[in-house]
Design brief:
The protein is an alpha/beta fold. The chain contains 3 helices and 7 strands. It holds the Pfam family Redoxin. Keywords: Signal. This is TlpA family protein disulfide reductase.
Amino acid sequence: MIKRLAIAALITTLGSQLSACNATQQPAPHPKGYETYINPGDTFKHTQLTNIDGQPVMLTQGKKLVILFATWCSDSQRTLNELKASALLTDPTLQVIAIGREEDADTLKAFRASFGIDFQLVADPNRAIYQHYANKGIPRLIMLDEHNRVVNTLIGEQPGVIDQVRWQ
């Protein structure tokens, strides 16, 4: 009996060590369980969206800042206020698109009017867009280069996230 247990323990130990040789190291999980499904160098999956006025939004040449947000989220509101106060919106080479997660066009139109938004807003009522880029957590900022490749991604839960938006 003891011999069988010793053999079983030896086999288990060897098996776990051998399988560990083939395992790839995974990044440490975010403490809040956030996962980002797109990484620097990846191509952004959406090249055309429809804004809340029913007009097509083409991701054109030049830099792009895509913000995944919700109107009810205080972190999203703070990030959008930081964006409005920044020099980013005066950059003629930058296209800004904000995608309202679980938001419909009417809610976003009211938000645009009350919040003074003058960049493109896209409704994503069923997370059809959001689910391609993350599992949870807003606001999400995705910086794209002129070829719609991801330069960086940020989660904007802390003040000052707009100061971290860079394309170099």
